[in-house]
Structures are given as structure tokens and as C-alpha cells.
Design a protein that fits this description.
The complex is a heterodimer of chains A (about 425) and B (about 325). Chain A has two domains: about 100 residues, Urease, subunit C, domain 1 (Roll); about 300 residues, Metal-dependent hydrolases (TIM Barrel, Alpha-Beta Barrel), CATH 3.20.20.140. Chain A has 13 helices and 19 strands. In chain A, the strands form four sheets. In chain A, strands 1, 2, 3, 4, 5, 17, 18 and 19 form an eight-stranded mixed beta sheet that branches. A six-stranded parallel beta sheet of chain A has the order 9-10-11-14-15-16, sandwiched between helices. In chain A, a hairpin with a 4-residue loop joins strand 1 and strand 2. A five-stranded parallel beta sheet of chain B has the order 7-6-5-8-9. Chain B has a four-stranded parallel beta sheet with strand order 2-1-3-4, with helices on both faces. The two termini of chain B are about 25 Å apart. The chains are: A alpha/beta (about 425), B alpha/beta (about 325).
Chain lengths: ~425, ~325
């Protein structure tokens, strides 16, 4: 399949390219930019006039719900949703049922995903067996099976000695650990940020300290062991300050935040909408503002959707009984663009946070539009307005706090490995 | 948009006192006043809600609150059905919404809801047909608006007005839906100084943003108060990481005659019940001349009648 993407605004953070250019795709690769190679006869010409052509998005957290949670979503539905969101590579957390703690499970998932249209699927392996926080998994075997990093996802790891051993073992092979900092004891029983709003609403609180106390432990252990650590889903101003300081001291850590936390805060909980029940909880306005600023100054390395489709019945209950999480892979791009508009950040810097930078964290090809690289490309209309609705989302999970809200920016085409895997109707 | 009000500003549901306008609170108290004599008549009934079906939907056990709602509804001539869901369909795994839909199909006009989860009444109100009203009879730690209103009614009866009062709420504010409703009502009705008194483990984060002054010393907090509201301390919280023991709690935060003497001489003492004598309150105070704890219970019926009558549109 040969594709000619004509006359689009090519925005490529790695190559610092932002300008009108044609892109030529053949045999799964970008074969030329600007001028067509000799004898190039496109099977498909995409007129990208007025559209943005950028690297396919790399999402660091997309739950595909297989195996085990097919009532919430399936591989088919979520890979299609991801493609519709312009995502060409994704990391899927191991909190499936059973968890991704054995090479066979990982191989099966990769095999299933490979035979479906949609993004490249990079499983994250469970850090501990059954995610129980006790026994290490066979990390080297899991790596051979295709795991890119190891994580507990949202499962607790209460035993600090296990965490230390996990870091030492991972550092032996230079494996990457992805950790969401949350002290289990301090968060126990909580469902919302422990602040003025939760106090008013009578919702049991998760203090910001749950994040900073856990972070202090993780950063100390990372320093001591030299393990490669990526911090997932930071949510507090103080936590971000700690990571910023650690980086300034030369510690090689990276971190991400979820798009929901860039736009929402505890104030939105008034009314008890269970769609706002997220992990970590939506924090105070000052925390949200700190996240927005840290994305701008580079202290936060990547933005992800933390896509968590749940069954509708799991949100049709009182707030405290609902399953946490939001469906979001199709909102990754528009919510990133909204942040950039709100903050006056150039488009190329915003795209960087959802393409090149997360590709580096995940350690995978993609995330850029260099000639000779994989043809993973997203073509979107920066100004197209649409409204979030159950019908507008391809994901089986319709659980989003942005339901009925207007969005600006919509994916038109997603090319993965040189194939046109998504084309907006 | 306030989910509790109709487009023209009338009461649609009663879910919380947070955000209700002062005029509505005052209207409820005035309406309750007009119902005060019904309980003293030979025939304790008025026909305002004749033909209406009111369902007591209690997902959490309660005797006291459920009974006062039942009496209030019957005095308004409504038909009352009590459902103790804590012991029936919920244990069989039926979803709340299915329960609610089933009852709506039986032509319910009003749901009185109690649930252990904060926001449960909001959730049900969001999912009922337009002709059904929801009254929150207590949701988790969030709100207990009719209790808050009957407390305001009691204060107004004994003190006449709100604008010149100092009111202290003492004890386990963290877990108390009653305290939250009281604080919202007191600040809305114009009480110039609302205090909360308790150990740091029992006060919620950022409580001062609800418009209260925080005290950790009971003697200082009670000084000059017109109204002292004691909160119930749940048994399971008396020992553990929140408090070392009931004895130590009583010593520092229990209301004794000596501590009450620091409030104004004509201060009244309130308690939402049921009381733990010797834990948060000394019997001598609970049964003493400044206690208005039993009148609170009586007023609770008139206040709940007022709320139901207004919701049913019968407040003419």
C-alpha cells in the first residue's frame, strides 16, 4: 500500500519540523517527505490541506480489558477506539484477569492484537505474581515475551522490602519499573481527594500525603539501586515538586499524568457524578494548575489517557460504590490540544507530550516522522468541533467525565505500519 | 443548577442544605410551625397528602428517623410503605436502580432515602421520574437535611433568631452527616459564629472552609456559646487510631456541668440522638434544665411534615 499525504501541516517534534509538506508512505515506512521518490504511484492520496499531520500518538496507559474483563471492553473495540483517537502505539497495564504475570499470557495477548487492525500493543508485565505485591514475576522471561516494563498498575505494593528487591532485580537487567506512587495505608478507605470538597460532600479522603510519602520512598530506593523508574499518574503539586527536584539532582526518572487531571479537579465532584471517580483522585485546583504548568516546563514528560473502560452498571451506583476510571483514549488528542490552547503552548510542544516523549519512555520505535521510520501517522483537524457522546465514542466504555462537553480537534486518518487503519466517516 | 429546586425556585427534592437559599429554609421552618398543633389535636391528621404514596427506602437500618418520617407522613394522611432494604433485596444483589424503578412502577410519589454512601440520595434523585420527590434521610457522611432543619427549628423556638448567636458543634464532625447539615443551615440562616470543637482526628480536612471556627480545646470553644450541639460518637470509633479510649474522649470532649458552665447561662444543649451517656455527654447535662434533646424529637415530626407537604406542593 502506497499512500501520499498531500499538503498537510507536518508537525514532528523530534525533527523540529512544523510546516506544509507532502509525505510518502510505502511498504510500512515513510519513504520521503517533500518530493515524491521516483516511480511513486500512490494507491491512496490523502488530501491533508488544512489538516495537521503528526506522528501517531503513543499512549502510556490503555486498558484493553482482555483477558478477563470482556464485559467491560474487548480487544477489538478498544484497539479500534485507540486508532480512532490517533493512537498508533499503546502500553497496556497488566491488571487483567488473570494479570499479565506469565509469558504465555503476554504472548497470547500480543498474538491476538497483532491479528487485529489497530495500534501496536506493548504489554506491561506484572511486577509481582498475581499483582499481589509479594513474589517477583519472571521479568526476564516476560521481557522476552514482549513486556516493555513492569508495574503493579493500581494494585498496592505494601511491602517496601519487595519494592527494594524488585528495583535491584530490575536494575540487574536494566528493566524499567513503572510505579504509581500511592501509600496504601494513607489511602485506605478513601475515594476522593482529602480536601475541602470531600469534607463538604462527606466522601472519605485520600490525602495528598499518600502520594508524596510513597514518592519519597520510591525516589530513595531508585537512588540507591539505580533502577530505571517511571512514575505514573502524578496528581499533586507537592509530588511534582519532588520529582522536579529529583531530576535536578540528576536522578533519571520520568513521569506522566492523565488527561483528566489536566482539566478537572475536586470542585467538579459537587453533584456526585460517578464518572469523576478516578484513580488517583481529582485533586485541588492548585494541583491541577501545577500539573498544567509542569507539562509546559517539561517537568512532566508525557500525557496519557489512562483509558479505563468500565461497564455502564459500574457507574450507575452511588459515587463510593462505583468502579473508578474513565474511558479516554479517544479524548487524548482533543484534551491535549485544549491544554495547549489554554496555556498558549505551541502545537509542536503539545504533540511532543503524546508522541516522541512517551515513545522514549516506552522504548519503542515511532513517535516521529523521519524518513525511513515506521509509517505511524495521525492526520487530524485541529479546529473541528464535536461533542462527546456515547454514540461518538467507539470504545465500549462510555464512562467519561467529559460526556456532553464540546471538544475541538478530531482525528481524520490514522496510519499504522503503513496501513490506513482508521478513516473518519 | 441546583438539582433540589424547580425552574421557578420551588423545592423539588430535599437532598442537602448546602446551597439551599435562606428563603426556602425559613419557609420550611415557618410551615413546620403551622403543623405544631396537629400533634396536640384529638385527631392528629390533616388531609394534605391524602392519596399520596410515600416509600421509606432504608438501605441502612434506622428506627428513630424512619419512625418520625412515618408518623409525619401519616399525620399528613399519606399512605406509607416501609422498606427495610438492608435486609431484603439488596442482600440478594439487586441494584439500587432496579429497586427504585420497581417502586416507581407501584406509583410512588415520594422516596425517603437512607443509605450508607455519601451522594446516594443525589444518585436516586437523578434517576427518578419527574413526579417523584426524594428526601434524603441520611447519606453516608454527607447530609441529613431534615435533622439539620429540626435543629434549626429548635434553636429558633428557644432563641427567637439566628443573627446574634454563637453555636458550637462538638465531637466527631468527620463522620457526621448531621454536623454538615447543621453547619450549612447555621451559616445560611446568618449565625455569625459557628464553632466546631474536637480532636484533630475527628475534624475533616479544610473544615474551616465551611465557614466555621475550629477549636481543639473544649473550654475555649464553649466560652460564651448560646447553643451547644453534641454529636454522637459511634461505638466502633471509640478505640483505635482515631481515639485511644472513650474515657479519655469523655475527659476532654464530653459535656459535663462544669464545662457547660463556661457557655452562656441560658445556653441550650442539643443532641441528635441516640446518646452515649458518659461518652459525649454526662447524664446530668442530658437530663438537666438546659437540655432540649426531647423537644428536638417532637419538633422533628413537624419539620418532616413541612418538608413533605412542600414537596408535594401542598404548602398553600
Amino acid at each position: 500500500m502506497k499512500i501520499h499525504i498531500r499538503n498537510g501541516r507536518v508537525v514532528d517534534p523530534l525533527n523540529q519540523h512544523d510546516g506544509i509538506a507532502d509525505i510518502y508512505v510505502a511498504a510500512g515506512k515513510i519513504v520521503a517527505m517533500g518530493t515524491a521518490p521516483a516511480d511513486f504511484h500512490a494507491n491512496r492520496v490523502i488530501d491533508a490541506s488544512g489538516l495537521v499531520v503528526c506522528p501517531g500518538l503513543v499512549d502510556l496507559s490503555v486498558r484493553l480489558r482482555e483477558p478477563g474483563f470482556e464485559y467491560r471492553a474487548t480487544l477489538e473495540s478498544e484497539m479500534l477506539a485507540a486508532a480512532a483517537g490517533g493512537v498508533t502505539s499503546l502500553a497496556c497495564p497488566p491488571d487483567t484477569d488473570p494479570p499479565l504475570d506469565e509469558p504465555g499470557l503476554v504472548e497470547m495477548l500480543k498474538f491476538r492484537a497483532k491479528n487485529l487492525p489497530g495500534p501496536r500493543v506493548y504489554p506491561l508485565g506484572a511486577l509481582t505474581q498475581k499483582l499481589e505485591g509479594k513474589l517477583l514475576t519472571e521479568m526476564a522471561e516476560l521481557t522476552e515475551a514482549g513486556c516493555r516494563a513492569f508495574t503493579q498498575a493500581d494494585a498496592p505494593l505494601t511491602d517496601t522490602q519487595v519494592l527494594l528487591r524488585a528495583m535491584e532485580y530490575a536494575a540487574t537487567f536494566d528493566f524499567s519499573l513503572w510505579l504509581r506512587p500511592q501509600d496504601v495505608s494513607l489511602a485506605r478507605g478513601g475515594i476522593a481527594h482529602d480536601g475541602a470538597i470531600a469534607s463538604r460532600l462527606g466522601l472519605p479522603g485520600i490525602p495528598a500525603l499518600a502520594e508524596t510519602v510513597a514518592l519519597a520512598t520510591i525516589l530513595q530506593l531508585a537512588r540507591a539501586t539505580g533502577a530505571r523508574v517511571h512514575l505514573s499518574r502524578l496528581s499533586t503539586r507537592d509530588g511534582i515538586a519532588m520529582v522536579r527536584a529529583a531530576k535536578a539532582q540528576g536522578l533519571a526518572v520520568t513521569c506522566d499524568v492523565a488527561t483528566s487531571h489536566v482539566h478537572l479537579c475536586e470542585n467538579d465532584l459537587v453533584g456526585f457524578d460517578a464518572h469523576l471517580h478516578l484513580t488517583p483522585p481529582l485533586r485541588a485546583l492548585r494541583d491541577r494548575d501545577a500539573i498544567r504548568e509542569a507539562l509546559r516546563d517539561g517537568s512532566i514528560d508525557a500525557l496519557c489517557s489512562d483509558h479505563t473502560p468500565v461497564d455502564e452498571d459500574e457507574k450507575q451506583v452511588p459515587f463510593g460504590e462505583s468502579s473508578p476510571g474513565a474511558s479516554g483514549v479517544e479524548l487524548l488528542l482533543p484534551l491535549t490540544l485544549k491544554w495547549a490552547r489554554d496555556m498558549g503552548v505551541p502545537l509542536i510542544q503539545a504533540i511532543d507530550l503524546v508522541s516522541w516523549k512517551p515513545a522514549q519512555i516506552l522504548g519503542v520505535p515511532g513517535g516521529h516522522l523521519s524518513v525511513g521510520s515506521y509509517a505511524d501517522i495521525c492526520v487530524f483537524d485541529e479546529t473541528a468541533e464535536w461533542q462527546v457522546s456515547a454514540r461518538a465514542l467507539m470504545s465500549q466504555g462510555k464512562n467519561t467525565p467529559f460526556l456532553d462537553q464540546p471538544m475541538q480537534g478530531r482525528v481524520r486518518y490514522t496510519i499504522i505500519d503503513g496501513h490506513l487503519d482508521f478513516e473518519a466517516p | 443548577m441546583n438539582p433540589q429546586l424547580t425552574a421557578d425556585g420551588r423545592l423539588r427534592h430535599l437532598l442537602t442544605l448546602d446551597g439551599l437559599p435562606r428563603a426556602i429554609l425559613t419557609q420550611i421552618l415557618d410551615t413546620a410551625e403551622s403543623f405544631m398543633d396537629v400533634g396536640e389535636r384529638e385527631v392528629k391528621k390533616v388531609p394534605l397528602l391524602r392519596g399520596k404514596s410515600i416509600f421509606n427506602l432504608f438501605f441502612e437500618p434506622s428506627t428513630r428517623t424512619r419512625t418520625t418520617f412515618e408518623i409525619a407522613a401519616k399525620r399528613l394522611s399519606a399512605d406509607v410503605v416501609n422498606l427495610n432494604i438492608a435486609t431484603s433485596s439488596q442482600t440478594k444483589g439487586e441494584a439500587i436502580l432496579d429497586t427504585v424503578d420497581n417502586l416507581a412502577a407501584m406509583h410512588a410519589d415520594m422516596f425517603i432515602v437512607r443509605h450508607s454512601q455519601s451522594g446516594a440520595a443525589h444518585f436516586i434523585a437523578r434517576n427518578v421520574a419527574p413526579h417523584i420527590s426524594v428526601v434524603n434521610a441520611g447519606d453516608g457522611r454527607h447530609a441529613h437535611p431534615t435533622q439539620g432543619l429540626l435543629d434549626m427549628f429548635t434553636i429558633r423556638r428557644y432563641k427567637g433568631a439566628f443573627h446574634n448567636l454563637t453555636v458550637a458543634v462538638v465531637g466527631d464532625v468527620l463522620h457526621s452527616r448531621v454536623a454538615r447539615s447543621q453547619i450549612h443551615a447555621l451559616t445560611t440562616l446568618g449565625v455569625p459564629e459557628v464553632r466546631v470543637i474536637g480532636p484533630k482526628t475527628l475534624l475533616p480536612a479544610g473544615v474551616e472552609q465551611m465557614g466555621v471556627k475550629v477549636f481543639h480545646n473544649m473550654e475555649q470553644g464553649l466560652a460564651g456559646c448560646d447553643v451547644v450541639i453534641m454529636l454522637r460518637l459511634q461505638n466502633e470509633r471509640m478505640r483505635g487510631a482515631l481515639l485511644p479510649s472513650a474515657q479519655e474522649y469523655f475527659k476532654f470532649f464530653g459535656l459535663t456541668p462544669e464545662k457547660l458552665a463556661l457557655a452562656k447561662p441560658d445556653a441550650i444543649v442539643m443532641h441528635p440522638g441516640p446518646m452515649n451517656r458518659g461518652v459525649e455527654i454526662d447524664s446530668e447535662v442530658a437530663d438537666g434544665p438546659q437540655s432540649v434533646i426531647l423537644p428536638q424529637v417532637t419538633y422533628g415530626i413537624a419539620v418532616r411534615m413541612a418538608v413533605m407537604a412542600m414537596l408535594a406542593g401542598g404548602n398553600s
